[in-house]
Amino acid sequence: MIQDQKSKKGAVTGLLFIAIVLLLVVLLENLSAILPAGSVPAVLMPTSQLFTVLKKGAVYSLVAVSMNLLNGFTGLFSLGQAGFMLLGAYTYAILTVPVSAKDTVYYLYGGSAVNFSLPDLFGGVDTPAGLILGVLLAILLGGCVAALFAYLIGLPVLRLKSDYLAIATLGFAEIIRAIFQWQPLGPVTNGANMITQIPTFNNFNITDANGTVILRLSTFFPFLIAIICIVVIVMLINSSYGRAFKAIREDEIAAEAMGINLAKHKMLSFCISSFFAGVGGALFAMFVNNAQAKVYTSTMTYEILLIVVIGGIGSISGSCLATFLYVACAEWWLRFLDSATTFASPTAPNRIAFMVIFAVVVIGGSALLIHRERRGSNQVWKQTLVGLVAILLLGWLAWFAATGELTLPLLRTGFRMVAFSIIIMVVVLFFRQGMLGDKEFSDILFARRRNAGKEATK
Amino acid sequence: MNTENILHLDHVTMQFGGVVAVNDLSVDVNKGQIVALIGPNGAGKTTAFNCITGVYEPTNGLVSFCGEPMVRNHPQGKMARGYLGEHGDLYTARFSVEDPEAKAAAEAQQDPAVKAQMQADYDKALEERRSKELERDPLAFTDKVLSPTPDKITQLGIARTFQNIRLFSALTVFENVLIAKHMRAKQNVFSATFRMNKAEEQRMREEAMALLEEQNLAHLKDEVAGSLPYGLQRHLEIARALATQPKLLLLDEPAAGMNPQETQELTEFIHKIRSEYDLSILMIEHHMDLVMQISELIYVLDFGKLIARGTPSEIQNNPRVIEAYLGVADDAEN
Ligand SMILES: Nc1ncnc2c1ncn2[C@@H]1O[C@H](COP(=O)(O)OP(=O)(O)OP(=O)(O)O)[C@@H](O)[C@H]1O
Ligand SMILES: [Mg+2]
Asked: Which of B46, B82, B233, B275 has the fewest CB atoms within 10 Å, measured from its CB?
C-alpha cells in the first residue's frame, strides 16, 4: 500500500513536470510574437539555433532512451539504432508524400509505386485531421516496421551470446542503408535521392487565412511525441516486465532460474527498443524535412551511444539530459571549433577572453579529474596523464600569449568531431558511470537515500 | 509414510568434449525427503544440478519430475560417435528388450506344439520386459528428446540456489523476490505497461512481501541486495527460490563459508522451510556435520560416478566413501 501511494505521488509530480516543460516550450517558441517587436533577443527568433537544438534534442532523446532500454536495462548491446531510424524515417516519408507531389519527388522514376498518402486519406495535410491523423499513423507505422525488422534479426541472433547482437545489428544497419539506395527500389525509396515534400514540424504551426503564423507548435510537436514515448518506456521499465529485463541484465542464469523466459524477454526488449528508434527516425525525417538513406550511418549510432554513455547507462533522465547537452554542443555551442578563427590584434578583447576561458577550463578540468581519482580508485597513471596533458596545454597557451599569435591552430571543419572523441575518452577513462550513473534525476533531486555500500561489495 | 516420487534421475550422463562430468547417475528424491549429494571437488555435483535445471542438456539419460518425464536425451550427432558413457542406446528407438537366443531357440524348435508354446512364452516375457521399461521410462523405444529451458523447469516447480551466490545485486531485496512472481502473473507486456491489471501487480507485491515477512527479511526490503552481508545474501537467495513456489528445492552448498554456529542454524532453517513450504530438498554440501544430521539419504559421487547410496550411518561406514571422500576431506581439514 505504501508502495502504491509513493508511486502515485511520483506519477503526479512527473505529470506536473511534463506539463510545465511542454508549456515552457510553447511559451518559448511564441515569445517572439508576444514580446513587442524590436525587443526580441536573437536567441528567441524562430530561426534561432535554440529551436534547432530543442527539436533535434527531443528526437535524439527518444532514440537515446530507446537505446538505453536495451543497453542499460536489458544488458543487450545493439548498434543498429541508425538502421532502425532509417526504417522509421523511410516508412514515414513514403507514406506521407502528398499524392500531388509524388511526380515531382519521384521524377527520376516516373512517379511512385505507392500511390496513396496517409494524410491525403484523411483529407490532406492542410486539414487538421489529415495532418494529425496522417502523420501520427505514419509515425506509428514507422515504429512498427522497425520492430518487425528487429524481430526478424532477433530470431537467429538473440539466441547467441550478446556480443553477436552488436555485430549483427551493426551489419544490418549498413546493409539496410545500401538496400534503400538501390536503384531498382527507386519507385518506392527514390533510390539514392531524398524523399522530400513530406509533412514536417513546421506544418504544425497554426496559421491564419493569410498564411501568417499565429501559434508556433513546431517545437512543441516533437516534444510531445518524444515525451509520450519516453513515458511509455518508463512505465514499461517500472512494470513487472521492466523488472524482468533488469534481472536479465543483472544475471541471465539467475533470471532464467527465476522462471524468466530469456528468449521471449530479450526479443520483447529488442523489438520495443527498435520500435521507438523507428518512431525517432520518423521524427528525425520530419526534423530534417526529408528522408535520405546516406544520413543514417554508423556515426549516428555512435552519437546516440555517446549520449547514452555520457548520461549514464541505465538512467533515463541521464539520457535526456545528455542529449540536450550533446546536441547543444554539437549544433550550437561548439560550432566555433569548426571554423578557422583569426583575432584582429594581440590585445583584442576576444583574444584575451579566449585565453582566460582556456586557462580556466584546463586548470579547473584537470584539478577536478585529479581530485576525483585521488578520492576514488587512486590510479596514479591517470593522475599523471591528466597532469601531463594540462601542462602541455598550458605551455601552449603561454606560447600563444607570448608570441602574439593571431590564428588559433587546428580549428577547421571536422575539429568538432575530434573534440567529441576526446570527450568520450575522458568519459570512458574517468566517468564510466556517466553523469547520473544508473540513478534518475529525481533520486538525486530529492536525495532519496540509496545504499552507499553498493560499490563497496562489488 | 508417503513415498511419492518427486525427482528421478535415470542413467544421466553429461559429457563435455572428452570429459565425462556426470557418469550414469541415477538418483531418487521422494516427497518430503531431504537428500544430499556429496563428493570431492570436481566430482560433478553442480553439473548434475545443471542437468536437472536445464542449464545443460544432459548427453544421455532421463530426468522425471513428479512422475512425468521432464528431460530426456541420447547422444546425438558428433556426440553419438564420441560418447564415452554407458547406456547410449537406452533412450533411443534402437533400444530393444529382445532376447535373440531365446527367440532363435523357439524358432529352431521342431515340434509345432512346443514351438507354439515357446513362442507364446517368449512373447509374454518380451511384453513383460517392455512394460517394465515403459514404467521406468514412458517414452522408451522412441528417440524423443525433451530439453526444456531452465525457466520452464522453474515453472514446473523446481527452484535452486547457486554455489556462488547469484543475486540480482543492483536490485533491492524486495525486487529480487518480486521477480520470482513474474512468471506466474496473468498479464502481457501491454497490460503490464499500461497498468491495466493493477490487482495482479498488487497481488504479486503482497505475496513477495508476505514471503519476506515469513523469512524475517522484511526490514531489509529496500536494501540493495549486493550490499547485504554474506550470510544474508545466502538467506535471500533461498527466499528468492521459495518465492517461485517450488515443490523441489535444490541447494548448492548452502553452508559454504559459514561457521559451525551458522551451520547449526542452517540445519534448523532447512527443516523449517521443508515443513512450512511442503518441500522436498536435494542439496550439495561439504559440511559433513550438516549432511549427516539433516539428510535421510545420501548419494556419493566421485569422478562423475555414483560410488555409494545410503543412510548417513551407512555412508559413514562405507570404505569406498571413506577412501574417496572422507579421507580427502580429513586431509584438507588438517
Ligand atoms: N561447461 C563445462 N565445460 C567443460 N567442463 C565442465 C563444464 N562444467 C563442468 N565441467 C567439468 O566437470 C567437472 C565437474 O564439475 P562440477 O562443477 O560439477 O564439480 P562439483 O562437484 O560441483 O565440484 P565443487 O565441489 O568444486 O563445486 C569438472 O571437472 C569441471 O571441469
Ligand atoms: Mg559445485
From this structure: B275
